Amino acid sequence: MNSDMLIRITRYYRALNRLRAIGLEKVFAHNLSDAAGVSAAVVRKDFSILAIHGQKRGGYEITELIDKLSALLGKGEPQNVIVVGCGRIGKALMHYSGFEPDGIRVVAGFDTDPIVYSDASHPVPVYPLSRIEEVIEALDVRVAIITVPEASAADTAEKLMEAGIRGILNFSPITLKPRPVAEGENPCVIHNINIALELEQIFYQLQFPDAIKG
Amino acid sequence: MNSDMLIRITRYYRALNRLRAIGLEKVFAHNLSDAAGVSAAVVRKDFSILAIHGQKRGGYEITELIDKLSALLGKGEPQNVIVVGCGRIGKALMHYSGFEPDGIRVVAGFDTDPIVYSDASHPVPVYPLSRIEEVIEALDVRVAIITVPEASAADTAEKLMEAGIRGILNFSPITLKPRPVAEGENPCVIHNINIALELEQIFYQLQFPDAIKG
DNA sequence: GATAAAATGTGATTGATGTAACATTAACTG
DNA sequence: CAGTTAATGTTACATCAATCACATTTTATC
């Protein structure tokens, strides 16, 4: 499995849920192809790799597809996350309602500033960072979103990993890297979202339209 | 040029600026390799492709590198962006100060809600969406950040493109695709950031640690 | 029932990209 | 001044994913 493929799977999954909501029962590769923005051959090949089979000329059964994909995507497990750093972006994420359809719940926030974590107006409880271990154990959390300032991002990530966090979505502008672990152990899964970098890439592509392929 | 390569270039560029700030004048491939998280061979190969040459055993001159990379990245052009949709995330981005080092400026916000665009407490002027054409012409803007709700994202993108926006950074959960254009024309450059999708990927990778390569 | 059409499923090919090995050049050292 | 070391620069290779073409199977139609 490739990370591009994982993204496609997720798109299939969403499209399928929409289609089921409309009342459809069967789906063809070219339907999903439209929804996911890829060719129909890719859809079939993905399913082929995943050992998901349809009926020739009959397409795929939506319910069966959804079941298999949701097992594959690990749906059903509790997907709790915390937000570390309750500045503007952190607060926005704590209020964000777009996670619900995916079964993801923001269950707590953390901040080092007493003014912030004593404020009771947050949509979820906010704790001082020092209580991190206790809280993530109580709430069964393994994934954190980092929205702290650049200067404290590396330290924060370190603290989180020590406390038992296994996955990090990092919005700070420095690129966090998983530290090397012993053979057989799994490193922390880190995704970095760098907004400024994305904008830079857009500006670049506008200036040199033919420079990028893909 | 590849989009992965572009990301690497940008990382080199940042690392170089930090190194220059410290007072260094020369840099070796393995220094940048550490900073960008790639192997030294990749750094040399990238520079080789870009026709950037160093001195054997002497490394590369930082100033020269920065000059060439900044020309390559299109620095120096005004990099003005607007934020369309001034909810929590939109507001957070209007306040965000992390763009400055990269020469990116948020110059205006847009919203359809009169309560929002009449509020004077924003860090940049906020206009009704209907004034989009007029404003982007006056401010020389070609790139927009979309932070509107899912339901209005597609329409908003359509309006922006009609108004002359050429690049979009989309935070809404639907994946925007550039519409096909005539031969010779350049399609709108669109980057989609889907936070829920990123989290889903992290959860997946945690559940199946060996499933993903890359 | 024969034929055509419409879909899946897969094997082969292509293309691109990262990796590594090696050749090359410059500087340092005794 | 010779030898060694430390860096660049390039070539060749291996890997991986996307694409295409085509075989296969099922259904529809006359």
Description:
Two copies of one chain form a homodimer. Chain A starts with a helix and ends in a 7-residue tail after the last helix. Chain A has 214 residues and is of the alpha/beta class. Chain A has helices at 3-22, 29-36, 40-49, 62-72, 88-95, 114-118, 132-139, 150-163, 195-207, and strands spanning 26-27, 60-61, 79-84, 104-111, 126-128, 143-146, 167-170, 189-192. In chain A, helix 1 packs across helix 2, helix 1 (3-22) packs antiparallel against helix 4 and helix 2 crosses helix 3 (40-49). The mean pLDDT of chain A is 91. The first copy, chain A, folds into two domains: 3-71, Winged helix-like DNA-binding domain superfamily/Winged helix DNA-binding domain (Arc Repressor Mutant, subunit A), CATH 1.10.10; 79-198, Rossmann fold, CATH 3.40.50. The first copy, chain A, has nine helices and eight strands. The longest helix of chain A has 20 residues, at 3-22. Chain A has a six-stranded parallel beta sheet with strand order 5-4-3-6-7-8, with helices on both faces. At the A-B interface, helix 1, helix 5, strand 7 and helix 9 of A face helix 1, helix 5, strand 7 and helix 9 of B. Chain A binds a DNA duplex (30 and 30 nucleotides) through helix 3.
